[in-house]
């Protein structure tokens, strides 16, 4: 077969696949609208941590923690530690206060804890702290997910039932009790696309991302990217491609956008 014709045929097939992707995504959008969740990336950098995200309707909140001097500080690194900025002060106490004052509920609220220090000693400390919050760890709609530095996947079942994990691969899928401890799939967007969130994402990148999302869903897990652009265009594309958690550093902007597009109520 003529190479030019073969190349044109390949391009045509890709275009057909993209058209199918576009229409199938929009066809199921009504169902997906109910499942879109907003994720507050590095929430502790907000001028009002936790409360700002909660007031905007974000149901997944990310906090980096570092263990030092038997304290679990909210920070990206040891050099950035600020006294009294602990996970209790910034997150666990506010969540408990919210419940006590009936300011809201824990309807599918996820606290994603990104460990920046040694995973084993940090997790032991975290568990000892969480045991002091029985109303949180026994609440079926509040989930605690460990990201960042984590134990080996085979060790996940060794941790309490209220602890789940962020799994960062679609190459090797564990089974059984290990997979039951996985709450979501998270991948680095920059490993799959260089799109900056303006203009159009290439057809190839859209197909590549849709395949990742579909694979996560086939294995029964929701999907999240980190390192994503934070623009109206990116939120539109990621919503259409079926990404479950929209990663953002702009809780107000994302919440406003989704409400305007009637993708979040």
Tell me about this structure.
The protein is of the alpha/beta class and 265 residues long. The chain has one domain: Phosphatidylinositol (PI) phosphodiesterase (TIM Barrel). Helices cover 40% and strands 19% of the residues. The protein has 10 helices and 9 strands. Strands 1, 2, 3, 4, 5, 6, 7, 8 and 9 form a 9-stranded mixed β-sheet that branches. It starts with a helix and ends in a 5-residue tail after the last helix.
Unreliable residue runs: 5-34
Evaluate the radius of gyration: 20 Å
Q: Helix-strand pattern, N to C?
A: HHEHEEHEHHEEHEHEHEH
**What's the β-strand tally?**
9
Structural class: alpha/beta
Strand content: 15-25%
Name a few traits of the molecule.
alpha/beta, 9-stranded mixed sheet
Walk me through the topology.
Layout: H1 3-27, H2 29-33, E1 37-40, H3 51-55, E2 60-68, E3 71-74, H4 87-100, E4 109-115, H5 119-130, H6 134-137, E5 142-148, E6 163-167, H7 176-180, E7 182-188, H8 203-218, E8 223-226, H9 232-240, E9 245-248, H10 251-260
Parallel strand pairs: 1-2, 1-9, 2-4, 4-5, 5-6, 6-7, 7-8
Antiparallel strand pairs: 2-3
Helix pairs in contact: 1-8
Write a short abstract of this structure.
By secondary structure, this protein is an alpha/beta fold.
């Amino acid at each position: 077969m003529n190479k030019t014709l073969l190349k044109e045929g390949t391009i045509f097939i890709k275009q057909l696949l993209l058209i199918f992707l576009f229409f199938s995504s929009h066809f199921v959008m009504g169902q997906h609208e109910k499942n879109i969740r907003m994720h507050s990336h590095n929430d502790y950098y907000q001028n009002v941590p936790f409360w700002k995200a909660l007031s905007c309707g974000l149901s997944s909140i990310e906090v980096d923690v570092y263990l030092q001097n038997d304290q679990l500080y909210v920070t990206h690194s040891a050099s950035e530690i600020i006294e009294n900025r602990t996970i209790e002060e910034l997150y666990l106490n506010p969540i408990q206060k919210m419940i006590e004052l009936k300011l809201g509920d824990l309807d599918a609220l996820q606290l994603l804890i990104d460990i920046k220090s040694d995973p084993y000693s940090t997790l032991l400390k975290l568990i000892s702290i969480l045991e002091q919050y029985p109303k949180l760890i026994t609440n079926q709609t509040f989930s605690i997910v460990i990201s960042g530095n984590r134990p080996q996947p085979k060790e996940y079942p060794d941790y309490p039932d209220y602890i789940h994990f962020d799994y960062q691969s679609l190459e090797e899928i564990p089974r059984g009790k290990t997979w039951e401890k996985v709450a979501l799939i998270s991948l680095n967007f920059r490993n799959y696309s260089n799109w900056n969130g303006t203009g159009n994402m290439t057809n190839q990148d859209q197909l590549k991302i849709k395949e990742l999302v579909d694979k996560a869903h086939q294995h029964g897990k929701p999907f999240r990217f980190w390192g994503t652009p934070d623009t109206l265009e990116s939120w539109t594309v990621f919503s259409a491609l079926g990404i479950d958690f929209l990663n953002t550093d702009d809780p107000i902007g994302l919440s406003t956008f989704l409400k305007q597009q009637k993708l979040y109520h």
